[in-house]
Design goal:
The structure holds 2 protein chains of 2 kinds. Chain A is an alpha/beta fold. Chain A contains 6 helices and 7 strands. The longest helix of chain A has 20 residues. Chain B has a single domain, classed as Glutaredoxin (3-Layer(aba) Sandwich). In chain B, 53% of the residues lie in helices and 21% in strands. In chain B, strand 3 and strand 4 form a beta hairpin. The two termini of chain B are 21 Å apart. The chains are: A alpha/beta, B alpha+beta. Chains A and B meet through helix 1, helix 5 and helix 6 of A and helix 1, helix 2, helix 4 and helix 6 of B.
Chain lengths: 205, 111
């Protein structure tokens, strides 16, 4: 789990409950800030200034969560994992995740939320990449600190990501993994679009 | 709201649907949550984090064993049936609580 914030914290909490044998490494170099509290409700005022990954592990009280207070960048020493879950809020971190996942041949889960909307996609090792889905420019749009975000929507995004991880464990070839899921919190709706078929044409060196 | 609360709720206040006045209304409103654990606890956690005062029914599971429901002043506002799968349940809970928040804001601002 990369990111212990608005998506990462409910996702880690859900993973602990839903997957009783999973071991979860939570990586986040950020510290708890007051503005995090409305959508990261495992943190409280007494946690301000403490590392998110460590506070989350303490709050969940599970021996299967391993916090790492680090940033995921080019220098990050990746552990051996079966799946990477994206709880970040920027393309740079996601591209780093994607590069690692492509090199090691493992899937990863893209997720994001801003305002009342969210997105989730299963990123298979041989399937479409971020450039296939969003174009090669990957221009950073408005982020939560600029546009705002609803905590309940980040919970819904985490739930969708968890649901896809559960599907993968039951049936790795499920057609439901080959879709981009779009969530809309004003109407409580979710819909999906099919991902492009075939191999990803982009090369990751 | 003082500066600390403005900072705390800044990401919600940025939203047109909430704004400063909407956040003030949320902070003054009490809701009651009842239903199935552990999801009642998740709902309580997220509603309180948004700034609402949250109370829980004394015997939460019996009133609505298939999910979670949220009441304001004893009046049912939203009933959220939840599937058995953890991921799908959290997904449904989050989306329905978002709709509840928007509906509640509309109702509070109309009073």
């Amino acid at each position: 789990m990369v990111g212990a914030g608005a998506i990462g914290s409910p996702l880690a909490a859900g993973l602990v409950s839903a997957l009783p044998e999973a071991e979860i490494i939570v990586v986040d170099g950020d510290l708890v800030e007051r503005s995090n509290l409305p959508r990261q409700p495992w943190f409280s005022l007494k946690d301000l200034g403490r590392p998110k990954a460590r506070v989350l592990a303490e709050a969940l009280g599970s021996k299967r969560i391993y916090p790492r207070v680090e940033r995921v960048d080019e220098a990050f020493a990746w552990p051996r994992v079966d799946l990477v879950m994206d709880g970040t809020d920027n393309w740079a971190a996601r591209l780093t995740i994607q590069k690692f996942a492509r090199h090691t041949g493992i899937p990863w889960l893209f997720s994001g939320a801003v305002r009342w909307e969210g997105q989730v996609a299963w990123m298979a090792p041989e399937g479409p990449c971020l450039a296939c889905l969003f174009g090669s420019e990957l221009t950073e749009g408005l982020r939560c600190f600029e546009a705002g975000v609803v905590g309940m929507v980040t919970l819904a995004v985490a739930g969708q990501a968890l649901a896809l991880a559960q599907k993968w464990l039951i049936d790795p070839k499920s057609a439901e993994l080959h879709r981009l899921y779009l969530l809309e919190g004003r109407q409580g709706r979710i819909w999906s679009v099919g991902l492009p078929q075939g191999r990803c044409p982009h090369i990751y060196g | 709201m003082d500066d600390a609360l403005l900072d705390q709720y800044s990401r919600q206040i940025l939203l047109d649907d909430v704004g400063y006045d909407g956040q003030e209304l949320l902070l003054r409103t009490t809701v009651e949550v009842e239903g199935l654990e552990p999801f009642r606890g998740w709902a309580q956690r997220y509603l309180a984090a948004a700034g609402l005062q949250v109370s829980v029914a004394p015997e939460p599971g019996e009133s609505f064993p298939n999910g979670v429901r949220v009441l304001v002043a004893g009046r049912l506002i939203r009933e959220i049936p939840l599937p058995g799968n953890w991921g799908e349940a959290l997904n449904r809970l989050g989306l329905d609580l978002a709709v509840f928040l928007l509906d509640l804001l509309g109702e509070l601002e109309g009073v």
